[in-house]
Specification:
One of its GO terms (molecular function) is catalytic activity. It holds the Pfam family AAA_28. This is Transcriptional regulator NadR. With 359 residues, the chain is α/β, with parallel strands linked by helices. It has 13 helices and 10 strands. The strands form 2 sheets. The chain has a 5-stranded parallel sheet with strand order 3-2-1-4-5, with helices on both faces. Helix 6 crosses helix 9. The longest helix has 19 residues. It is elongated and about 75 Å long. The two termini are 36 Å apart.
Length: 359
C-alpha cells in the first residue's frame, strides 16, 4: 500500500465523530506527516477553537489547524471552488501529496491541491454516523462521540441546597432513575460533593492529632475553597467525558461560593471565577422546609438553613442560572426533578445550521 509524505484531511467536524476519527487514523497510518484542517463558518454554533482542540486531543500525532470559511458552498461553480481553495491553501501553507476523504467532492479537492485522492469508507459502513445526524440528535449518536465532545454536549444538572436538605439523596435518586432507562442512559454519571470528602478528611486529621476533636473545633480558611471548587469541577469534567447525555452533580463550584459566604461571611472572587468557567444547564435547589435537620457529625447550622436556601436562590436568579426549587417528600422531589430534566432534554441541543449547499 502506497505511503505519502504529507497528507491532508479537511472537514467541518461539526462536531467530530467516530467516522472522522477513523478517517484521520487511516490517513496517519499512510502518511509521514498529516495535517487536519478544521473549517468553520461564522454562522455555526460550535466555536472553531473547540473543534480544533477536540481533534488535537484525539489525534496528538497530527498537525491540527483551523480556518474560518464563510464562502457559500457551490460544488458546481469554479469561482466558488477557487475562493475556498485560497482559504485552504493559505491555512495549510505547504504542498499536499494526498487528500484523504469520504466525501463526493474529494476527487476535485485532491485535483486542486495537485494531490492524490484516497477515499475512505464513503458509504459509512464502518461507522454509520454523520455530522448532520449528530446535530439532529446527539443522544441517538452518543456511542460515536469521543470523550471531549461528550463532555461538551452532556446536559449538566446540579442539585444543591443547605445542610441536611436532601441534596445527596435527590441527586443519587435522579442518577439511578436515568440509569434504569438503559441503553445510552445506563452510563449516567453521578458526581459526589467533594467538599464533604474534604471536610471528612479535615476532621479525621484533627482527630489524629487530638482524639477528642469534633466538628465544632474545625475552621476553614478562604484559601481552601478555591481548592475545593477546582477539585469539584475536575471530577465533574471527568464524569462528563465518560457518561451519558445527562450528568447529575451533587453540588458544584458555584455552590462552593455560597458555602464560603456561609463559613467566612464574604464572597471569594477566585471561586466565582472558577465557577464561571463551566456551563451548567439546570440547578435543582432543595428546600429546607420539608426535611428535618439531621446532625451527622459534619453539620452545625440548622438555624442557617433558611438563610442558605435564600442565598442560593438569590444568586441563582442574579446570575441568570436556570433553576427550580424542589419541595415535598422524597418521591415528590424525584418526580419533580425527573420532569424538569426530561423537559431540558426534550429541548434538544439547538445546533445552528451550517451554510447551505447550492444544488
Amino acid at each position: 500500500m502506497r505511503r505519502f509524505g504529507h497528507g491532508l484531511v479537511l472537514g467541518k467536524f461539526y462536531p467530530p465523530h467516530a467516522g472522522h476519527h477513523h478517517l484521520v487514523r487511516t490517513a496517519q497510518d499512510r502518511c509521514e506527516r498529516l495535517t487536519v484542517l478544521v473549517c468553520a463558518a461564522s454562522v455555526e454554533s460550535v466555536p472553531l477553537a473547540d473543534r480544533v482542540a477536540w481533534m488535537q486531543e484525539a489525534h496528538p500525532g497530527a498537525r491540527v489547524i483551523g480556518a474560518v470559511d464563510d464562502i457559500p458552498v457551490d460544488l458546481h461553480d469554479p469561482a466558488v471552488w477557487e475562493a475556498h481553495m485560497e482559504i485552504f491553501r493559505t491555512a495549510v501553507g505547504e504542498p499536499v501529496d494526498a487528500v484523504f476523504t469520504s466525501e463526493e467532492y474529494g476527487s476535485e479537492l485532491a485535483r486542486r491541491f495537485g494531490a492524490e485522492e484516497v477515499c475512505v469508507d464513503p458509504s459509512r459502513t464502518l461507522f454509520p454516523v454523520s455530522g448532520t445526524a449528530v446535530r439532529a440528535d446527539p443522544a441517538a449518536c452518543w456511542e460515536f462521540l469521543g470523550p471531549a465532545v461528550r463532555a461538551a454536549l452532556a446536559r449538566r444538572v446540579v442539585v444543591l441546597g443547605a445542610e441536611s436538605t436532601g441534596t445527596t439523596t435527590l441527586s443519587r435518586d435522579l442518577a439511578a432513575h436515568y440509569r434504569a432507562r438503559g441503553g445510552v442512559w445506563a452510563a449516567t454519571g453521578w458526581v459526589a460533593e467533594y467538599g464533604r470528602r474534604y471536610s471528612e478528611e479535615k476532621l479525621a486529621a484533627a482527630r489524629a492529632a487530638r482524639p477528642g476533636a469534633t466538628w465544632a473545633d474545625i475552621s476553614f480558611t478562604s484559601a481552601e475553597f478555591p481548592v475545593i471548587a477546582r477539585r469539584q469541577d475536575a471530577e465533574e469534567e471527568r464524569a462528563a467525558r465518560t457518561g451519558s447525555p445527562v450528568l447529575i452533580c451533587d453540588t458544584d463550584s458555584f455552590a462552593t461560593g455560597i458555602w464560603h459566604e456561609r463559613y467566612l461571611g464574604a464572597r471569594n472572587t477566585e471561586v466565582e471565577r472558577t465557577a464561571a468557567l463551566t456551563h451548567r444547564d439546570l440547578y435543582l435547589l432543595t428546600d429546607d422546609a420539608d426535611v428535618p435537620f439531621e446532625d451527622d457529625g459534619l453539620r452545625d447550622g440548622p438555624h442557617l438553613r433558611p438563610w442558605m436556601t435564600g442565598r442560593f436562590r438569590e444568586e441563582l436568579e442574579a446570575t441568570g442560572r436556570r433553576h427550580l426549587l424542589v419541595r415535598g417528600d422524597r418521591e415528590t422531589r424525584l418526580a419533580t426533578a425527573v420532569a424538569a430534566v426530561d423537559g431540558l432534554l426534550a429541548e434538544g441541543w439547538q445546533f445552528a445550521d451550517p451554510l447551505p449547499e447550492a444544488r
